[in-house]
Amino acid sequence: MWKHKITEIAIPESKFMLFMKSFFYSDFYKEVEGRYSTIQEGMYAYFEATRLLILAYSVIGYKDTLKKVLEPAKDIIKISYEKMKVMSGLVHDGNITNEYWYDNPKKLLGT
Predict the structure, then answer these.
(1) pTM of the entire structure?
(2) Contacts of residue 88, Cβ cutoff 8 Å, sequence gap at least 6
(3) Three-state SS sequence of the chain
(4) What is the number of alpha carbons within 13 Å of residue 7 lying toward its C-beta?
(5) Which of 55, 63, 66, 102 could form a disulfide with 81 if both were Cys (CB 3.0 to 4.6 A apart)?
(6) What is the mean pLDDT of each run of 10 residues along the chain (111 residues)?
(7) Around Cβ 101, how many Cβ atoms within 10 Å?
(8) HSE (CB half, 13 Å, CA atoms) of 72?
């Protein structure tokens, strides 16, 4: 299981509490956007590294190792996608698309 935990940021579920938090903490949205961007950059780098490992193991004939390479990626998707969807809704002003890795975790996880 993936041991690194996404830095938590408390995002209220109700719109009223979200308004109150942003009213009393003026940098709230800036902090959410900063963490979202940092996590997105890290995830894209992680997925690219995983893709390159899969390619390398395929080329050298270690196809049995591919499953081991994919397991940590699946674990990080499982523990991260819900929080990223919430943060995405704030960063993208509620305009959620299916463009990002966290929008369709079942497709990535193969379930």
Answers:
(1) 0.72
(2) 36, 96, 100, 102
(3) CCCCCCCCCCCCCCHHHHHHHHHHCCCHHHHHHHHHHHHHHHHHHHHHHHHHHHHHHHHCCCHHHHHHHHHHHHHHHHHHHHHHHHHHHHHCCCCCCCCCCCCCHHHHHCC
(4) 11
(5) 102
(6) 55 86 88 88 91 92 86 88 84 70 76 57
(7) 19
(8) 16
